[in-house]
Amino acid sequence: MGTITTEGLYTAPVADGSHTIAAMNQADETQSAKATVTVAAANSTQSSPGGSSPSGTGTGTATGTGTGKGTGTGTGTGGSTTPTQSTTNNATYQNIDEMGGWANCGACAGEGGRGPNVPYSLSQYASSPSMDGNAAHFWIGGRTPFADALWWKQLAPKPGATHFIYDLFFYYTNAGAVQALEFDGNQSVDGRKYIFGHQCNVAARQWDIWNTSGAYWVHTGIGCSAPPTYTWNHLVLEFERANGQTHFIAVTLNGQKSYFNRYGGSKAGGGNELNVAFQMDETSQAANYDVWLDKVNLTAF
């Protein structure tokens, strides 16, 4: 379903769900590839992970929209990756970008969980740009200033785990279109929810962290002007829950480590969950842009 131009640009249909694109070299039929595009269609509702957002919380039920854009290249169909576990409370979740079942929303990522509806998409198993041949390609579109799109992947809960390392690579091409790039971890345990929200606030040229109890962003003074474009940026975030609070430990971007050492409280929240999330924020110019994630790993212990 959808259309592909002669230049190879794929446009997904306005329909909720996942669409698989298969491509074959007409000169050599032994060369082929597949890619999967996930589209959030108008009036589809999904429960958000209760993550952070530019000016509020992403709690509740949200509505997403979009026609989506993706590439028709890839190296395989991919699939769910089983975490490597050493003890009951320890786990390493590898290649999360290749796992199925990513959830998403647009409106829930905005202020107060009621942001605008804009088109956005996730296309998995992209071969280029990619580090391992299976990158995840995220895109946000539309013409609404300060629009956002959020994706998250639920993982097997580890209620005994208190310390986390979120390790990934990202690649993008248009620094001027980015208001912020957000990378989160979320854990719910013992009736409390811990939102480890981090955003490279390109507009403010620094890292922000999320205060869960107060539901607001906090400038850290640690620099994060636009990371380099057209290259893979390596990001490592370290955080933990300690004494009933989120504790932001450190960020390492392209080998440069800085220490947050800040606390952000927690809030009441039922259930037992663990997930990672990624959010794209547009500027007042509402320029569409793309981000690729690869080698996305989470270590919990």
What's the structural blueprint in terms of helices and strands?
Elements: E1 3-4, E2 9-11, E3 17-25, E4 28-39, E5 44-47, E6 51-52, E7 57-58, E8 61-64, E9 69-71, E10 91-93, E11 103-105, E12 120-126, E13 135-140, E14 148-155, E15 163-172, E16 178-189, E17 192-201, E18 206-211, E19 216-223, E20 233-242, E21 245-253, E22 256-263, E23 267-268, E24 273-282, E25 289-300
Antiparallel strand pairs: 1-2, 2-9, 3-4, 4-12, 5-8, 6-7, 10-25, 11-14, 12-13, 13-25, 14-24, 15-20, 15-25, 16-17, 16-24, 17-18, 17-23, 18-19, 20-21, 21-22
Tell me the overall shape.
globular
What can be said about the biggest beta sheet? 10 strands, antiparallel
CATH class: Mainly Beta
CATH evolutionary superfamily = Galactose-binding domain-like
Give me the count of strands. 25
User: What series of H and E elements makes up the topology?
Assistant: EEEEEEEEEEEEEEEEEEEEEEEEE
Percent range for β-strand residues = over 45%
- Uncertain residue ranges: 5-10, 38-47, 54-86
**CATH architectural label:** Sandwich
CATH fold-level label: Jelly Rolls
In terms of quaternary structure, what is this?
single chain
How many individual helices? 0
Q: What is the CA–CA distance across the termini?
A: 43 Å
Rg from Cα: 18 Å
How many separate structural domains? 1
Let me know the average pLDDT: 81
Q: Helicity level, as a percent range? A: under 10%
Structural class by sheet pairing and helices? mainly beta
